[in-house]
Amino acid sequence: MAVLGSREQMCIHEEVSKLRGKAQNNGCHYLCKKRMCRHNNIVTDYMKNNTELGSEPFDIEDLVNIGRTKGPCPYYISRELSKSVDILFAPYNYLIDPGNRRSLTGISWDNAVLIFDEAHNLESICADAASFDLLTSNLTSCITEAQECIQLCSFKRSIENSAEKQFDPENYAILKALLMALEKKIGELVIDSKELGYTKPGSYIYEFLSELNITSETSKKLIETIDSASLLLEEGNSGETKAGVKAKSTVSRLETIRDMLDIIFKGGGQNHAKYYSFHVNESSRQTSGDSLQVFGKASRTLSWWCFNPGLAMEEFLKLGVRSIILTSGTLSPLDSLAMELNLEFPVRLENPHVISQDQIWVGVVPVGPSGHPLNSSYRTRETVKYKQELGTVIVNFARIVPDGLLVFFPSYSMMDKCIDYWKNRNHEHSVDDSTIWQRMCKHKQPVIEPRQSSNFPNAIEDYAAKLRDPSTSGAIFFAVCRGKVSEGLDFADRAGRAVIVTGMPFSTPTDPKVFLVFEGFFISHWQLSSRRVTYVTFNIGFGA
Fold first, then answer.
1. Helicase ATP-binding domain spans which residues (predicted)?
2. Is the pTM of this model over 0.85?
């Protein structure tokens, strides 16, 4: 077996491990290309001398421990192992994202079995992988990089007298002109509604780009130029320091344009465009200088959104995989899931729940102790009365529920606002001027889910330690729906005696994606039935 992860999880280089995202990837590429990373340099010999690696189960932490104690790079050990193993564990995006999938060289997809665990996330991940958002700020950075390539080429030609195609500044001058024309064209679109933006059918992207002479044929040349530019920037900008790499460096924004072209001109055809929407949105952004803040500068985002997650799954069928298995506790109804993913799933298994009905109570608490409605809709969740009433309810639950209590919020911001209010506002029914937070802490020791993944293991350990503390009556874990606590963790027995969900993380009704989904549904319904369409609004509040 082998397990794949990111450099952020596995890198042990003293400088590169401090970087993040594409800066880290490019820094790693540069050092490995120059053979300046001692950890990468010994991977081949380590693999030859440890052929048993992978015959027993291991995880990312085990690989990192091997790297720290014996020297080889954990990231490249996992990459070498992945070429020959029977079982490969990897994050979703390594398989679904076309760019990441291309990097998995040596893997035979033919006759492979793909198992997606926690597959209730699969639809959104597939749709996101087939979509893109191009911000004008990113486009401006791309133009700057194209200009930098022109300067690097001119410099190389002057000192090396090189006539290589890669160092022809004319190629990057054309690239820069195209990007500037794209920026101008996006800015010239007339947006009548700032809420809904400028929307066209997905196929409009080809008309839009053809006016810039970007077509299926010319895009290939454009992609080649961008690939050359990325290599040029990687080598030109990755200056050497004592450790061998600059901490500032080498994020190639031009790669976002490459990814965008790959999605648009996938397979050289346009049939997939019918599942997309072309959208340009404008928003005011804040820019700040040393002591001056400027508000209201318009920023536009060009989006091409995919509304058919099945497009990503179809790619696996083209690769010749034998089986696709989805597992999760929350995939029902299976018919609609199969329709969304464009797969038949001839074999289906739905098991009864392991918890019998007499072991659990599920209910909605519509009002608090003072009779105020517990409505977590956007209109009411920010009110003082709602936060006051919600805090009082949680105090009461903390008093009567033994051991561990889990409390979920719709978002990190909502959790932060509520906790901040509870810490600084007296409990209205308290006789000793204590705050709501102090009242909670009398019954349960609190733990708050951190935003940063690196701090999450410490939070879990803290929660377990507080549950074991005999001097307390348990612990309360404040967490976020769709966050780290809500996915893949088992709060068994004492760790989870009760769960409170304070509100669901629904998108706002004015979110352009939500509007386009429902607009597409109702238009389809109208075309199929030729009857009047009735728009129904749903007000979903606490506990729904």
1. 1-170
2. no
